[in-house]
Amino acid sequence: MASNPKAKQPKILILATLAGGYAGADSTGQAHADYPANTYILPIMCPVMFPPEFFVRAFERGIDGIIIMYSGTDSPYKVEADGTAALVNSSYALMKERGIDIRRLRLAAICTVCVKPFLKEVNQMVELLQGIGFVKDELAAPVTASA
Amino acid sequence: MPDKQKAARKAASPDKEEVRVGVYTCHCGGNISHVVQCERVAKALGKMPDVVVARTDPSFCSDAGQAIIEQDIQELGINRVVIGACAPSLHEQTFRNTVTRAGLNPYLYHHVGIREQDSWVHDGDPEGATEKAVRLMAAGLAKARLLTPLEPIRLGAEKGALVIGGGVAGLRAALDIAHQGIRVTLVEKSPFLGGRMAQLESIFPTDEEPRQLLHALIEQAAAHPSITILTGAEVTAVSGYVGNFNLQVTQHERGLSEELAEALLAACEQEAPDNFNYGLTRRKVVYRPYPGCYPSTPAVDWEHYDGRPIQVDGKAVVLKDKPQVHALTVGAIVLATGFNPYEPRQGEYGYGEITEVVTLPQLIRILAQVPQGEPLIWNGHPVRDVALIHCVGSREIEGVHTPQDDGQVNNYCSRVCCTASLHTALELRRRFPEINLYELYQDIRTYGRGHEEIYNQAQSAMVHFLRYRGEKQPEVAAAPPGDTHPALVRVVDTLTYGEEIEVPVDLVVLAVGMMPSPIDALVDMLKVSRGNDRFLLEVHPKLRPVEMAVRGIVLAGTAQGPMNIQESLSAASAAAAKVAALLGQGRVELPPFVARVDESKCDGTGACVEACQEEGAIALQTFQENGHEVRRAVVTPANCTGCGACVGVCPKRAIDVQAWTLAQYEAMVDALAMDIPAFAEAEK
Amino acid sequence: MENLHVDALVLGGGIAGMQAALDLADQGFQVALLEREPSIGGKMITLSKVFPTLDCCSCITTPKMSAVAHHPNIHLLTYCEMQSVAETGSGFRLAVVQKPRYVDVNKCTGCRKCEYECPVTLPSPFDRGLGAYRAIRVPFSTAVPQTAVLDIENCILCGKCEKVCAAGAVDFTQRAETFEIQATTLVVASGFELTPLNAKKEYGGETLQNVIDPLMMERFLAPTGPYGRVLRPGDGKEPTSIAYVQCAGSRDQTLGVEYCSRVCCMYAIKQAMLISGALPMADITIYYMDIRTFGKGYEQFYQNAQAMGVEFVRGKVAAIREDDEQNPVVKVELTEEGRIIERTFDLVVLSLGMVPTAGADGILSLPLGEDKFIAIPAPNANPCETARPGIFVTGTAMGPMDIVDSIITAGSVASAASAYIREHQKETAYA
Q: Which residues of chain C have pLDDT under 50?
């Protein structure tokens, strides 16, 4: 799956909880499983810290897809399971308002040893973005990176 | 070097601090550099704002590698450090210590994982992997520029530990911890101590008497002034964190007073399956599992007792379970919850359908009941031929073996069954010299010290070995009526070049593997992880082999995976050493990743308080300021878990989780989204 | 050297000794760690990657080495030999020799300029003789301490190192110094050696060029290795067919090594997987009697290797000879087919077993088991206690074991030793 340096790749941001998705991504690495390189994983404590505006802002800056990999009901935080679901719903509302395809934001429960589910989530997002294209083309008034 | 000196002076100036970042891209001895072009990464990062130096090294975690970073901090005045290397779970702490040694606050360092999440997963795409590393490092840099010095939260730690499980591992851990001057509460679910080891009759390779060894441990534990033993007890609630876990332990009523115990035991008529003998026999519902058990007072089997009165001295005594609740505060928890023997499926090798099929743990109990010198009779017939089948419930292959109810197959080796099986075969040979013995195996794994001798002895003792392949398991069937033997075992034996051999037998013994004890409730309460094999999962098999990801919780014995007694003892002592190191000082340090209110922005909307689900973590308080009353949120760091529920809801952006701020994430997103021209520019 | 008084003295700076020292020091005890080589790290630091996680070995080892060097409660004593031990009322008194490095440890910065100037080239034991090093050198790139050491036996006394050293650290006048360590308890972590490569004459070890030992293969596979790739020592050719002979030094009464060495199955499988990565076209065959992948995650590892195409053949290797092109020819009895074949390979690795390192047990007069490892009188009660009170043992000094198990026994010995220290110091305080 070598990337063509000339062809611009969509950018996928993965916000992964330390207790869940981030550890799952590390397990995927330990298994030496292959997935596309246009995937950027940032560790988070728990997704509830983000307001919906954060996601919209990220799309406006040029992130084409976001996967929140949380720990679901296995989280060390009481608030994570329900709080994240609520957050995603309110984010969808805001995305619709701004004309962003809500499929660009996904929520997935990934545990520390979830290699197969991790790969599935990543590949689904990659496929989706191949279909729906860059977020910039979707936004009526693109915002430049310097804004 | 005057430039360096100037830099160092500048960094030392106390007022407006200039951000000076050192960026380090580790080759990881080729693990990263075989895919990611680390030099290109360093070059690109070197051109980004505030980066003073960008280096690569074969391994920054080595002493020499760490020395480079220390030197840069001291000589170049580096005051933010970004390291791209293996997963932060491996070496984040290593590098926090490195920068601390060089005089930098440990939280002015940020770790970027570019091995597990880059080079190891994109080895077909070096170009893409390199670009990814640049972006991830750029994001790390963006975060590092916004880092501020932090201090860990220092809390007093309760100098006490809870050990869950009263088997050999739990007992050993309890004693070792108590020897270090730490108070221990040992909680055992069953009414008696000893666990699985008590059900054995002889331990390989020394042929020692297990209950004798166990009782030596139990006597020490029971006599130790710092150990409290609670039997018939379970943890029913947990809160808190390392140093200060608050637990609720619910203990069943023993049901019998000392004076009446013997009389009740004698008078009790109701029976239930005897778990000590793996259900092969029945015992009274007022019982002692075996003579010499601890505690010696009989217990009531509350699960099976039907509530009918028992007649003692002309009185009708009704036994009542009034569970008692204990509240405990401890600094650390040891999980020594042990294992269950694998319970074969109904019909697996004829188990549950053919009376002549038993498990190895059952056979050990059967043999214990046959007096020395007497013949072995099973199901009314003298036993002449015995087949022992290895790897039952172990080394299962997906697609070949029938999965368990939860869809799992036990693809691991249970480590002890080979030696245990051969050890038992030798006992059969010794006690019943005429018996024909057949061991059906895949690989003989007598790995331990003195174990190979047992294998050699079994070979000399005329034990017949038949070797099957995992994908072609032996078959067990009931023999047709009138046959010489009640059961037939068929096996394709690779030692005779694939010949199909049929062995008529009187007894089939399944050398079953180990499964973790059912501890779902405990796992949920403690928020600890299990591996794919469902045993409890250590942080790292070599770096932190007995610790769990939740700080203050350690593992002892077979809760972690199959082990023999010697290995369980070692693991338990290793766990005790960790607890002693953790609690020895009477205080613990917690990472400062908790919410913090920016007083200049907070105007007391209370949205954070509403969003917070952790008890006592945040509250509104009223302050007097310049003659005005102002309301502001105040965080209690010890109770804050750092989830950030308060951050997302604050309309003023007045609250953040330290070292994980929203502004840092926004900066990281900007770096990731940076246009390719910017990347190319940085490359020039 | 100043005399030392510590709670615990750990003998051996391999992984078990380092971990035991760290676990004791973390509990607040004063620990001395004695290592006879110029650097700590033991056998583990020479390995490539470790099973079953395939973590790079130096990534696991070097931070522990670093932690030992920087721990405030650990006195690290490298290049030292224990000479004698006496029991005192309150523990042990050891006479220890600090061997001369001919380099002042306080001055040397580890810049390696001496090494670059030194004209004497010798086969490097760190690289199992495959690579070379100089008569004066930092022992290896990740050595702790990062201090040069001079091999006076092979030095030609040209003085180049002394001239080039900006720190003035080279000192040809250094002499061995004897000093004393008093310790309440001793922890033996003296480790293992491989069974000799030539122990089984019919396998041709040491006579056939392309029959090697597994630690040599580790150096071929290690990123820090001498060549950075896998090749035949005979002619430098890239091998396309490689055989592993399991139990080549274990489970063999004729060698006096009747026991299983526990690690050989896993290291052979690990190396086979790493070779498959380095040389995707290479065929790898493992001849075995029983595959013993019994540890946590090990069976899965074995299954992965099978899926990767590593060929596992149940067979007894009878002999190895060489053809005209120095290719080893393996004569093997295929026990599942009942026939004997000969097959030619480019390279053969003999999966050698473990024997104890000689030395420490003799000075300490510790009884040995039949297997020559230090005897443990009550393995199912006190798995780390030797027959002599106050002396404990950990790691491969107590029998073959892998790194995971060594680290566990190190934690275990730390518990046993610390209980002994507390008990004993309490007694002597009242005495």
A: 431
C166 and C202, same domain (yes or no): no
Phi first, then psi: what are they for B571, rounded to 5°? -65, -40
Which of the two residues, A5 and C88, has the higher pLDDT score? Answer: C88
Q: Is residue B671 part of a domain?
A: no
Q: Which of C227, C50, C39 is nearest to B62 (CA)?
A: C39
Q: Do A145 and B129 touch (CB under 8 A)?
A: no
Would you state the structure tokens that stand for residue C265, as one six-digit string? 């199955």
B494-535 confidence digits (pLDDT tens): 999 999 999 999 999 999 999 999 999 999 999 888 998 999
Q: Where are the domains of chain A?
A: 14-140
pLDDT at A7: 63
Largest CA distance in chain B: 103
Compute the average pLDDT of residues B369-383. 94
Question: C270: which chain A residues are within 8 Å (Cβ-Cβ)?
Answer: none
3-state helix, strand, coil in chain A (%, to 5): 45, 15, 35
CA C8 and chain centroid, separation: 22
Q: HSE-up of A50 (CA within 13 Å, CB side)?
A: 30
Amino acid at A7: A
Q: pTM here? A: 0.84
Final residue before a domain boundary, out of B587, B609, B636? B587
Can you tell me whether residue C128 is helix, strand or coil?
coil
**Tokens describing residue C255:** 């060698």
Q: Tens digits of per-residue pLDDT, B472-485?
A: 999 999 999 999 99
| Nearest by Cα to A27 from B123, C276, B531, B83 | B531
Rounded mean pLDDT, B355-375: 96
CATH number at residue B40: 3.40.50
Question: Domain of C326?
Answer: 196-353
Q: Are B222 and B229 in contact (CB under 8 A)?
A: yes
Contact C412 B415 (CB under 8 A): no
- Segments in B56-166 forming alpha helices (H): 63-75, 88-101, 126-145
Instruction: Give the CATH number, domain containing residue C135.
Output: 3.30.70
CA of C225 to nearest chain B CA: how many angstroms apart? 10
Q: What are the angstrom distances between the C-alpha of B399 and each of A115, C305, C350?
A: 19, 18, 34
**Structural domains of chain B, count:** 5
Question: Are B225 and B268 found together in one domain?
Answer: no
Q: Which residue, of C353, C369, C389, is where some domain finishes?
A: C353
β-strands C177-188, C347-350 pairing: unpaired
Q: Give the model confidence (pLDDT) of B625-672 as tens digits.
A: 888 899 999 998 888 889 999 999 999 999 999 999 999 999 999 999
What residues of chain B lie within 8 A of the CB of C298, using their CB? 412-413
Same domain, B570 and B600: no
Q: Do B91 and C63 touch (CB under 8 A)?
A: yes
- Measured in degrees and rounded to the nearest 5, phi and psi for residue B189 equal -65, -40
Q: Does pLDDT of A144 surpass 90?
A: no
| Alpha-carbon gap, residue C71 to C40, rounded angstroms | 14
pLDDT score for C225: 82
Q: Same structural domain for residues B31 and B105?
A: yes
Q: Does B4 have pLDDT greater than 70? A: no
Q: Is residue B92 part of a domain?
A: yes
State the pLDDT at residue A1: 43
- What element of type H or E holds C318? strand C311-322
Verify that C279 and C349 share a domain, yes or no. yes
Q: Are residues B304 and B331 in the same domain?
A: no
Pair C146, C182 in one domain? no
Sort out which chain B residues have CB atoms less than 8 A from A23's CB and list them: 89, 549
Burial B209-223 (b: 16+ CB within 10 A, else e): ebbebbbebbebbee
Instruction: Check whether residue B494 and residue B561 sit in a common domain.
Output: no
What gap in Å lies between CA B232 and CA B218, rounded to an integer? 16
Q: How do B385-392 and B507-512 pair as beta strands? A: parallel
**Which residues form the domain of B559?**
160-252+323-338+524-587
Q: How far C136 CA sits from the closest chain B CA (Å)?
A: 18
